[in-house]
Amino acid sequence: MRTIEYNRSTAVEYAKKWAFERNPGYYDFDGIGGDCTNFASQCLYAGSGVMNYTRDVGWYYISANDRAAAWSGAQYFHNFITANSGVGPVAVNSDISNLQLGDFIQLHNGTEFYHTLIITGFSGSEPLIAAHTRDAYMTPLSLYTYAEPFGLHITGVHVW
After folding, report:
1. For all residues of the chain together, what is the average pLDDT?
2. Does the CA dihedral 3-51-37-21 come out positive or negative?
3. Is 116 exposed, middle or buried (0-12, 13-18, 19+ CB in 10 A)?
4. What is the pLDDT of residue 147?
5. Which of 14, 60, 131, 157 is 20 to 30 A from 27, alpha carbon to alpha carbon?
């Protein structure tokens, strides 16, 4: 297995295109828990081009009924991407001040991660984000209420 570069600009362009709409190739989870991590996964897939089809612990989307928990669940997304030693994207926990375009911020309520945002720009040092559920694009992180934000810096993509 080798590691390739994550295409940050492609991920951000995807976020720009779909921030206020829904890609018909993916189910819209807004009515059943929220669409934020599903949207984040779509952006990440646009920039990585690789899914991990390992049942139960992978990161993939085939259909609304055939997907990994990590594709649409914020806590599972975090667990997968920070521990992935197989195919697919890899991230490390990072201070918000060290994040780049195409990286992710997850909001934590003191118990679990509940919201996933992609960084699409910066205003000074403040990240501007895109998200679904409460649809946003180029929105300052400071407009969100949260107990603690966690940064996820994408370090690369494992491929065969």
Report:
1. 97
2. positive
3. buried
4. 85
5. 157
Q: What residue has token string 């709409």?
A: 21
Task: Indicate the helix (H) or strand (E) that contains 105.
Answer: strand 104-108
Give the H or E element holding residue 110.
none
Question: Which neighbouring-strand residues pair with 67?
Answer: 61
Is the distance from CB of 48 to CB of 6 less than 8 angstroms? yes
Q: Contact, 159 vs 4, CB < 8 A? A: yes
* pTM, rounded to two decimals: 0.98
Q: Which SS3 state, helix, strand or coil, does residue 149 take? A: strand
pLDDT of residue 145: 84
* Tokens matching residue 156: 């690369």
For residues 130 and 106, the answer to whether their CB atoms sit within 8 Å is: no
The residues facing 146 across adjacent strands are none
Q: Which residues pair with 149 in a beta bridge?
A: 107
Residue 9, SS3 per DSSP: helix
Element (H, E) at 82: helix 74-83
Class of residue 101 by CB neighbours under 10 A (exposed 0-12, middle 13-18, buried 19+): middle
